[in-house]
Amino acid sequence: MSRKLLTIIAAAAIVLTGMTAQARNINVRGKVTIEGTGEPAYGVGIYNATTDKLIATTNDEGRYTVNIDENGSLKFRAMGTQSRTIPVNGQLSLNVTLLPEATELDEVVVMAKAINNKLITEPTDIDVKGNYLHVKTHVKIPHRLFSSNVRMIVQPAIYNVTRNEIMYMRPVVFDGHRYAITQQRMHDWDNTKDPLTPYIQVKHTGRRADDVLTLHDSVYVKNPKDDFRCDVMSSLETYNSVIYTDTFVIARGTVNPLRFLSYSLKGSPVTDERFFPAPEMQLRDTRGEMQLAFQVGKSNLDLTLGNNRSEMNRLSEQLREIENNPDMAIKSFTISGTASPEGIYESNRRLAEHRMQSAMDVILQGLSDDTRHNIEVGTEASVAGWDEVAQLLRADNLTDEAETIEKIIDRYPGNITRQGRNIKSLPFYTLLKNNYLPRLRNVSYRIVTQRYRYLTDEEIADLYRTNSSDMTRYEFWRLYSRADSTERESIIRRALEVDPHFLTGATDLADILIEKGTPDASLLEQMLTSAKREVPNESRLNHGIALLTDGQYTRADSILSLTPDTEIYHKAKIYSATLNGRYHDVIEEISSDSPFNEVLLLLTMKANDQAWEKAQKLGDSAKEEYIKAVAANRLDKYMAALSHLKNAFRLDPSLRETARIDGDIVDLLNDIDDESTDY
C-alpha cells in the first residue's frame, strides 16, 4: 500500500473519535424452559461462568436480563435440573432449555372392592353443606341377632348414582365381649395390622339388651347436584366365617333446598397496576446506508470530495452509539464498491475492489476487536452499466439523450467496452463525463444492527396479524386492552396459547366469560395452584365465581376467603358462605337480597315453620311452586304439598328430574306418578 494511501487512511481514522478497541458489556435477555414440557423455569440461578458469581435469576415467566462481557459465558443452575454453560458470543438474545435430573418414585396403588347388592329400608336424610354430604342415623342391633362371640361390621357408603361411584364412610365395628377377649389372647394376633382396629366398640350391655349404634360422617363430592343414595352394608362374623350379610339403602336423594339458590355475581378484570405486564423490548433489525464518492480512475478515499466527510461523520456517530449502547449490536456490515462504466470492464472491476478495500480499512479500524470478531462482513465489487446512465438522464427529463444511449446498448448487448467507445463519440459525452459518471463511482455501505426497543401500537397490531407467537405478554395486553369487545376474547385466547402462564390475561378472559354467562372453572385453576408469588385479587374473585357455578363450593370458599371484604368481592363471599353452610352469618343479607333465597335458607336451616309462612307469600313461578311443595311436605301438609308440586310440574316438566333426586320430594312422586293425568 502506498505511503499516500496510508496517510489518507490515518486521516480518516481521526474522524472516528471515541471508538476505542476494547471489550464491552452487553445486555442479554432470554427465557429458560424445561426440556420436554416447555414449562418456564422459575428461580433459575444465572452465573457469570468466568467469576462463578450469581448475576440474575429467572422470574415466574422464566425470563431474565443480565449484563455481561459480550465474549463471556453464562451458567444456568436450578435444583432438579442439569446445569448448562453457554457462551454469549455477542448475542443479545439467549433462550435456554434445562434437562430435568432423573428421579425415581415409588408407585402406590390403592384398590377397593365394591359391594353391589342393595336393599331398600326406611329412608333418612343426606344433608348437603357445600361439597360435603352429611349422614346421621342410628342402627339398632337386636339382642336376638347378636351373641357374645361374634363381630358385627356396619359399613355406610355414599353411592353416586349419576357417576356410578362409591365412597366409603367410617365403619362401625361392634365386638361381643367374648369375641374381643379371644382376639386379644390369640398368640399371633397383632391389632396394629388390622385396619378395623380404630373403629372397634365392645358390647358391655346385658345379653338381653338391644344395642343402638350411631352412624355419623360426611364425605366430599365434586358435584352436590348429582343423584346420591346412602347404602349400609352389614356383616356378622365369627372367628373364622361370615354368618350373615345384608345391604340396606337408608337414604335416596339429597336434602338440598339451596340447589335453587338464585344469584348474579360480577367478575372483574385486573385493576391493580402492579400486575399489569411490564413493557418488554423486542429485538429488531435496523438498517442504515451511506455512500462515498471517488474520483475517476482513483481508489483512494478523499474526505474532501463531495459529501464524504459528512457521510463518515454520520457513520462515526452511528458506530459510537452501537458501541456504547448495551441494547444494540451490529448484526452485519456489507460494503459494495462500484466503478463507472467508461474504460475496460476488468480494469473498472478491479478499481471497484480497491475502492471498497480502501474504505473498509478505514471503517473497520474504528471498531473494537470484539465487535469486529462478532459481526458478519460482506463485500461486493461491481461496475455500473450504461443503462444506469440512461436512467439518470431520464430522471432529469433528458429523454432524447437517454434513448440514444439505450439504442447503443441494444446494438452491442453484453459488451460494455464496445458500448463505451460508441458513447464517447456522442456530442453530449462531456455532459455525461462531468455530471453523471461521477455519480456512479462510489462505495456504499449497508449496516444492519440489532436493537431492543418498544414496539408502537401499529407494530404490535401488525405483529399480531403476521407472527403473534413472537409477541410478549405486554404486547398482547396492550393490544386487547385497546380492542373492542368483539375482538378482546380471541386476542386473549391467542395470548394464552403463546404463553399459558399469563395470569393477568387469563383473569381478564375469566371476567369476559362471567359476563357472557359461561364461566370456566379450569381457566385459572392451575395458575393459582402453582403461583409462587402474590396474585391479583381479581384472579381469585373470577375463579371463585367460576367454581361456584361449577358446583365446587368448598374450593370456591377457600379461594374467596383470601379476597378483601370490599364492595367488589362482598357479594361473592356472601353466597359462598351460604353454599358452604355458614347460614347464620348471612341470613340477614340473603333475606334482603331475595325473598325466594330467604325461604331456601330457612329450609336449609330446618326452620320449617318460618319457611312455610314466608313461602306462601312467594309468586307462582315453577320454582316457587316447587319450594312451596317442599315447605308444605316438611310440615306434613300433604294435600298442599301435592297441589304445589303438580303446579310446578305443569309449569316446568323438567322439574320432575330434579324431584327424583330431591330427598324432600321423592316420597310424593309415587303418588303423582300413580295418577293418570300428565302435568
Structure description:
The structure is a single chain. With 679 residues, the chain is α+β, with helices and mostly antiparallel strands. The chain is 39% helix and 22% strand. Strands 8, 11, 12, 13, 14, 16 and 17 form a seven-stranded mixed beta sheet that branches. A four-stranded antiparallel beta sheet has the order 3-2-5-6, with no helix packed on it. It has a four-stranded mixed beta sheet with strand order 18-21-19-20. Helix 15 (537-549) packs antiparallel against helix 16. It starts with a helix and ends in a 5-residue tail after the last helix.
Helical residues, percent: 25-40%
- Give the structural class: alpha+beta
**Beginning-to-end CA distance, first to last residue:** 109 Å
Q: Let me know the number of strands.
A: 21
Low-pLDDT parts are: 1-21, 103-121
User: In percent terms, what proportion of residues is strand?
Assistant: 15-25%
Count of alpha/pi helices: 24
Report the biggest beta sheet as strand number plus sense, adding barrel if it closes: 7 strands, mixed
Radius of gyration: 43 Å
Provide the residue-averaged pLDDT. Answer: 83
Give the overall silhouette: elongated
Could you provide a short overview of the structure?
With about 675 residues, this protein is an alpha+beta fold. The protein is about 40% helix and about 20% strand.
